[in-house]
Each structure stands twice: as structure tokens, then as C-alpha cells.
Amino acid sequence: MSFSREKRESIKRELVEMLNNDDADFDKKLMDKYEITITSIRRYLKDLSDSHIIRQTRLSNCGYELIWHEYEYTYDLWDMNIEEHSVYSKVLAPLISNCSESANRIWPYVFVEIMNNSIEHSNGTKIIVKIRKSYLYTDVIIADNGLGIFQRIIDYVKKENNIDIGIDDIIMELHKGKLTIAKFFHSGEGIFFVSKMLDYFAICSDNHVFFSGDTEDENLREYLKDYAAKISGCGTTVWMELSNFTERKMQDVFDAFSTAENGFAKTIIPIYDICSGGYPVARSLARRLTFRMEEFSEVTLDFAGVPMIGQGFAHEVFVVFKNKYPQTNLIVANANPDVSKMILHVTNTKYSS
């Protein structure tokens, strides 16, 4: 059977994705799906090996692993001529020229935003830019040896607003967006939209991690902490990952969280992330969660991974906050039956506050 070039490229990509997921049955699955022979599979594997996309290894079940090409650059912050767009043009743009059109639109937006934060606000002496690229993905790490972004926000808010906040509060506000209490934070929109443009995004600082992505586990969180400590010692490390084949449109991301009347007016809050892997019980956590939520016309509360919620937490969010700010539409997403049952219970029950 003869496939078109486009079809062969599609099979090759699917094969690489299976190898990246360490699927030991990749050959059988592809043979059944596309009705091709083992000889064809071996030919694909040879082409991928000759192109330095994969290599054989004894450390995986499938016998192969992706090849990552790594590049690292160090910039002295005493050099007043560092410009984020120039760094992007020199070190990243040439490497992604063969990626999708969407990737070539997203990367300059996110890279320049994060690089600018490091140049202007880190108060450190150096910035490290590390790029890792495989056939499937491009990773970019931007690290500085300054004070650390979370501590800088804490100090700024204390000085300007005389408010004491903790790192957990900052991480929660980053998930919401619009962190306007810290003016240097680019009106609270920059990092929020950067995190939504990418497949995975993380900020590591002060042994804490702000994470945004499709999946996360504690092993990944600890890996990011360890890696941040190794690459910068202290300060802030930002990790970004995007598929080289992404079809995500920047305007679709902006539109998902914006309205024609009010601009940035919608947000999504991952409840699992703000309750540190447990489940939300206390009213105090609910009050932290609902702080500033009235600034949005629509808030999606994503309960993915949350096994249950406490009565006090649910009442504070879905009764107290909702009664006070009825103009904010609360949308519940990915709630299991126990979570849904508790929300229904508090909204159908009269309480004395």
C-alpha cells in the first residue's frame, strides 16, 4: 500500500508519540491501524534514527527514546543593552522555524513576556536561557538569580498596600489572573495568558511551584523544584513547553477569557491546585479563593481531581459569595458526584451565618 507524503508524516508523528509514551506495543498497534507490515515499521524506525529524532535505549519498554537537542545561554544583567526581542530572535526563533504556524506565533509572545520580567524585575545579576527541542516538543527555561518572584510580590504588596500575604495566596491569585495589587506584574494579565497559551507552564521560586497544564503530579512538582535549584540556585525559574505541532490560536485563548464589553472578564481556577493536593474544607480557604472574584463576570471552578469538599467551604463560595456578588456567574466543571452533592446541599439549605 502506498501512502501520500502527508499520510506518511502523520504515521511518523504518531509513531514518535507512541515511543515517547513508552508504548511497547507500538508496532502491533500501527500494523493493525494502518494495515502495514513490520518491514514498513522498521523502515520508519530507521528513518527516524537516521534523522536523529529517536535512538535505541535499554531503559524503556519500547526500546527507543526521543532525542533532545539542548542549548544554553547566559546573560549578564549588568549589560544594559539586553533586549528581550533581540534574545528571542537570536536564540529561539531559528530553532522553531520548522514548527507549526501557531507555534511561531505563540513563542515570541510568551518568551518576550517572561524574558522582560526577568530583565526588568529580578534584581539579579544574570539570566540563564535554556532551550530543549525534540521532534515533538520545545521546552524553554528562563532562570534568574534574583530575590525570587513570590518574595518580590510579598515585599511589594506589604510596602504599597500594607497587606501581609503568603506565597500560597500569590499562587492562587496567579491562577485567577488580574493580579493588579502588584503593578510591576504587567496588570495581572501577562503571566495568566502566557500560561494558557502553552501546554505546560511553571514558575519555581522559594521552593514553591505555580503550575498550569493539562496534567500534574507530585513527582513533576518535585522535579521542577530540584531543577530550579540546580539551574539558578535561587531566584526564579520559569519553565515553558509547547508542542511543535500545536494548532492553538492565540486569539482563541484571548477570546476564551474575554468579553467585548469588559475585556479580560472570565477565568478558570483549578481547585485541586489551590488546596495543595488535599480537599477544600475550611471557610478561610474559601474566602481566599473568592477574594477579587467579583472582578470577573464569569468564574469557572474546576474540581478535577478533588475527591470531596467541606460544607463550610461550599457554603462560603456558593451561598455567601454568590449572594453578595450575584453578577459573577459561577460555573462548576469536572465535579464528581460527592462534590456536586455538597454544592447542591448548601444551595438548597438555609443557613444562619
Task: Please characterize this protein's 3D structure.
- The protein is of the alpha+beta class and 353 residues long.
- The chain has 14 helices and 13 strands.
- The chain has helices at residues 5-20, 26-34, 38-50, 84-92, 101-121, 149-161, 167-176, 190-197, 218-232, 250-256, 271-274, 283-290, 311-324, 337-347, and strands spanning 54-56, 64-66, 69-76, 126-133, 137-144, 200-205, 208-213, 236-243, 258-259, 263-264, 266-270, 298-302, 329-333.
- The strands form four sheets. Strands 3-4-5-8-6-7 form a six-stranded antiparallel β-sheet, with helices on both faces. Strands 11-12-13 form a three-stranded parallel β-sheet. Strands 1-2 form a two-stranded antiparallel ribbon.
- A hairpin with a 2-residue loop joins strand 6 and strand 7 (208-213).
- Helix 4 (84-92) packs across helix 5 and helix 5 (101-121) runs antiparallel to helix 8.
- The longest helix is centred in the N-terminal third of the chain and has 21 residues, at 101-121.
- It starts with a helix and ends in a 6-residue tail after the last helix.
- The model has no long low-confidence stretch (mean pLDDT 88).
